[in-house]
Automatic annotation (TrEMBL):
Source organism phylogeny: Eukaryota, Fungi, Fungi incertae sedis, Chytridiomycota, Chytridiomycota incertae sedis
Family matches, as Pfam families: AEP_C962R, DUF5906
Protein name, entry field: SF3 helicase domain-containing protein
Residue intervals passing through the bilayer: none
Boundaries of every NrS-1 polymerase-like helicase domain copy: 613-709
UniProt domain C962R-like N-terminal AEP: residue ranges: 25-118
Organism encoding this protein: Synchytrium microbalum
InterPro entries named in the record: AEP_C962R (IPR056443), NrS-1_pol-like_helicase (IPR045455), P-loop_NTPase (IPR027417), Sigma_54_int_dom_ATP-bd_1 (IPR025662)
């Protein structure tokens, strides 16, 4: 390979292989080798090299691997590690290090794509004697490469691996910071640099700070217009252009034409792959290139300058290589205003006072944030004499690079990088980090930009779980009202947008974006759930105190629910009272009001749920609709509740209701989950495509139905449900009743029920609820228990307490079967006997096999000690219709 470059200073250092002072070093390069004597010419060489980099000349330093030899030395500037040997030498060395860090961070990736790397990789190396395996696998290593992230922060590895000489016995000679003079002496003995020159216009030879392979397919008419000229200029008259792509290299853009051609005129044979290209650049023109064989590098000797290109090709080339996007993606934009910069600065460990105004620039590899500051971003204790442009490069591979023009660069640890990513990507950047491969916004990114602009201009909020959109109430800073669900809002925003309609998945993508991604331009709605907002102020549902509008603090936040009514402080609800007074006595509906107030936030350990029982049309659902109108998020349980993931839609709501209890509620909503939700226990919540989480349930439950829940009850269910039985049918239905209650009584209802709950807690917070409830609720509890426990109903209706009477369990089982007209279970639940009467005792007795009485000496003429059997009996219980065969005498 010939070394072509306009860096003329290299001619001063060009040597032949025979002139090299270090033996046994692999230096066979077709373009020649370059040697710099450390003692005599090193400083001037570095100065010239710095100037060449400053002028954007296309060159870079590489290292060669010895196939075999007495010793070898790998010189490497590690930009990811601050304690580099380069830090401890002269000023010229530091300046070179600074420019390399800024310009050649991606050069290793660029160079490995070059043919020479492939050639070296195919060589047979002495793997046991290679110091740096990255060099071994890569074929070449550049001055200015980046080591694997896991090794960046291992000082031991850097000291012993990066800067190690091997003597003739292949023993390591460590170079470190303990003995600088000895290290420099070793460097002088082994200072061989091979510089591979590249044409300035060569894509892989440009300074590669932002170099990346980018694919963008031009329009069909552009491809058609270029094709005839390529056929004429390069003689490909019988072949087809496979693809035309626009790519970037360094700071420039070029067009890559891939030929669907296997025959190589230089090799006079077909290649295995389609690896012939035409490169067109508006800076240099065009040339042909082939990757299949090293001899095909001669194809690069047929350049055509840009000025010699036909005018129509020049115009096409200019159009393809210049941005045609209305959005200037690379233009710097300020970070969102507010306090978000503090999160960024905390993650970086820098001062808030000096780092307020970050600028964000989207690049092909991620996002670059920068700021002019005197404080060093790498060493916060260092203050530069003048402001420098400090950068933070947030890459799509999740790594974060801090760059100081004067001090170099550093890769942050994974834990710190996560903090920066969290601060930047979620709170700071206006748009998602995913750019198109050419660094421009994708269509989806444009859509999200439209979403964020619309939300920011309207001061909208969104629900953290559903993505539902909320709009501010005019004149009330503390109030937001639901505008619509996320899907409807997206559809309305992009109505008649042809680009949006071209992909049917755009709606679902944006809805998911609204649900999952944080962005300060469209924040999630965060509320104070114990506050309700009214037109004239805010109401605290815990303290039952009202704050007038003029006294509401400016930084209060957002209320849990806004009710568009005036709060008067009254508690009179005649319409609602009429419904409850028709069904219940005053002491009963007072408890109902108390339990309704409890639904604004449970602050007790009663572990109960309010349940309305009754036929349809008796007013049960009316109360559920009234209380639902007072909270922001209501979860609903119905017969179609998803059994595996159903809780995911319920656990973050303010209230869970069921206005028509399914007859098979135990299959829809399992008994163990039902009990845990009532008692405030821990519940495992599973979500689709997410990890299940364990939560402590705090959301109140409010059910209504035509029948009792079908859960198996041995006392654990009936004591958790406070039942209000709407037993009286309404004489006349009033379809406007709910509307009138909501329009005239809602503020009074809120004040009434929350005060009732507060007053009840002041009196009975330390008591068991069932000991203070009216007898009506205890009777309803027993009815539920008997409905779910047939044995209990049988015992209460057919037996009576009688001291000294013992009844065999077999007799009980027989009577129980006759009572219900079916077979009785083999084992009756003992807790049902206790529930029927605490004085019923179940014991085991020995009976004589002959007389069937207690097995006692002399019980009958045939008495024998061995002739006995054990039987379960119930003591102190007698059947109402008793006969001699039912009882055992004492």
């Amino acid at each position: 390979m010939l070394a072509k470059t306009n860096a003329a200073f290299l001619n001063l250092y060009k040597v032949s292989k025979d002139d090299l002072v270090v033996e046994h070093t692999h230096t066979s390069m077709a373009g020649g080798c370059y040697h710099v004597e450390l003692a005599a010419k090193y400083t001037s060489f570095l100065s010239s090299y710095v100037k060449a980099l400053t002028l954007n000349e296309g060159l870079y330093l590489t290292e060669r691997i010895p196939k075999r030899g007495g010793f070898c030395f790998f010189m490497d500037l590690d930009f990811d590690f601050v304690d580099d040997v380069a830090t401890y030498t002269n000023d010229e060395w530091q300046e070179c290090y600074r420019l390399c860090a800024a310009r050649l961070q991606e050069v290793l990736k660029t160079h490995q794509a070059n043919i020479l790397a492939k050639q070296c990789q195919d060589e047979v190396f002495d793997g046991d004697h290679v110091v740096d395996m990255q060099v071994y696998y890569g074929g070449l290593r550049m001055l200015g490469s980046v080591k694997p992230p896991e090794r960046d922060h291992d000082p031991g590895w850097v000291t012993t691996k990066s800067y190690t000489l091997l003597d003739k016995e292949f023993l390591p000679l460590p170079l470190g910071l303990d003995n600088i003079e000895a290290s420099v002496a070793c460097l002088k003995l082994a200072s061989i640099f091979n510089l591979e020159g590249k044409e300035l216009t060569h894509p892989t030879g440009l300074p590669a700070a932002l170099s990346a392979t980018v694919t963008r397919r031009p329009r069909h008419e552009s491809t058609s217009a270029i094709t005839p000229w390529i056929y004429e200029a390069y003689g490909h008259d019988s072949n087809v252009i496979k693809s035309v792509k626009t790519k970037t290299a360094g700071v420039g853009r070029y067009v890559l034409v891939e030929l669907d051609e296997r025959y190589c005129p230089f090799q006079q044979r077909e290649h295995k792959g389609n690896r012939q290209y035409i490169i067109l650049s508006k800076r240099a023109g065009s040339y042909q290139k082939c990757h299949d064989h090293e001899s095909c590098d001669d194809l690069k000797h047929h350049p055509i300058s840009f000025a010699d290109l036909p005018s129509h090709v020049q115009n096409i080339l200019l159009r393809l290589t210049e941005s045609n996007d209305d959005d200037d993606t690379d233009a710097p934009r300020p970070v969102v205003a507010g306090q978000d910069f503090r999160k960024v600065n905390d993650a970086l460990g820098i001062s808030h006072d000096d780092w307020r105004d970050w600028n964000s620039t989207a690049v092909a590899t991620g996002h670059q944030l920068w700021k002019e500051a005197t404080q060093c971003i790498l060493h916060p204790a260092v203050v530069h004499p003048v402001a420098v442009r400090a950068c933070v490069l947030i890459k799509q591979d999740k790594s974060v690079h801090k760059i100081c023009p004067d001090c170099g660069a550093d890769v942050m640890s994974k834990s710190d990088a996560k903090k920066v990513h969290r601060a930047f990507s979620q709170d700071i950047l206006h748009t998602p980090a995913s750019l198109n491969s050419d660094g421009k916004k994708t269509p989806f990114q444009k859509f999200t930009h439209t979403v964020l602009e619309e939300a920011s201009s309207q001061n909208l909020r969104r629900d953290r779980k559903t993505g539902d959109v909320y709009a501010p109430v005019e004149g009330l800073a503390f109030a937001f009202e639901k505008l619509c669900d996320a899907k409807t809002w997206v559809q309305n925003l992009f109505a008649d947008n042809r680009e949006f309609e071209s992909d049917v998945s755009n709606v679902d993508k944006l809805v998911k974006y609204l649900q999952d991604f944080k962005n300060s331009a469209f924040p999630f709605l965060t509320t104070q759930r114990n506050y309700l907002g009214f037109t004239n102020g805010i109401y605290n549902t815990v303290t039952c105190e009202f704050t007038e509008l003029a006294q509401v603090p400016e930084d209060f936040g957002v209320v849990g629910k806004y009710l568009p009514y005036e709060f008067t402080g009254m508690t009179e609800t005649p319409l609602l009272d009429g419904v409850l007074n028709y069904q219940f006595k005053p002491e009963v509906h007072d408890i109902i009001y108390m339990l309704l107030g409890r639904m604004f936030g449970i602050r007790d350990h009663f572990g109960v749920m309010l349940y309305f029982l009754g036929e349809s049309g008796v007013g049960k659902s009316l109360l559920i609709k009234v209380i639902s109108a007072c909270v922001a998020n209501v979860g609903v349980i119905g017969g179609n509740l998803e059994q595996t993931f159903g809780l995911d839609a319920l656990y973050e709501t303010d209230l869970v209701t069921c206005d028509d209890l399914p007859r098979n509620i135990s299959k829809v909503f399992s008994q163990d989950i039902f009990q845990s939700c009532i008692t405030g226990g821990k519940v495992n919540v599973a979500a689709k495509q997410k990890r299940a989480i364990m939560v402590e349930w705090t959301t109140p439950l409010f059910f209504a139905g035509n029948w009792y829940p079908d859960y198996l009850d041995m006392g654990q269910i009936s004591r958790r449900i406070v039942i209000a039985n709407f037993s009286r049918p309404l004489q006349e239905d009033d379809p406007s009743l709910l509307t009138r209650i909501l329009a005239t009584e809602l503020p009074a209802f809120v004040h009434k029920v929350t005060r009732a709950y507060n007053d009840f807690l002041l009196k009975h917070a330390s008591h068991s609820l069932w000991t203070v409830l009216p007898q009506y609720f205890r009777d309803e509890r027993d009815e539920l228990r008997m409905d779910r426990d047939p044995l209990l109903r049988f015992l209460r209706e057919r037996t009576v307490y009688m001291a000294g009477i013992t009844t065999a369990m077999a007799i009980v089982r027989k009577e129980f079967a006759e009572f219900f007209g079916g077979p009785a279970p083999k084992k009756l639940n003992h807790s049902s006997f206790k529930a029927a009467n605490p004085l019923y005792q179940i014991t085991k007795v020995k009976l004589c096999k002959h007389c069937r009485k207690r097995h006692l000496a002399g019980c009958c003429d045939r008495y024998n000690r061995a002739d006995s059997t054990s039987r379960d009996v119930v003591e102190n219980m007698q059947f109402l219709d008793v006969n001699e065969e039912m009882s055992i005498g004492l």
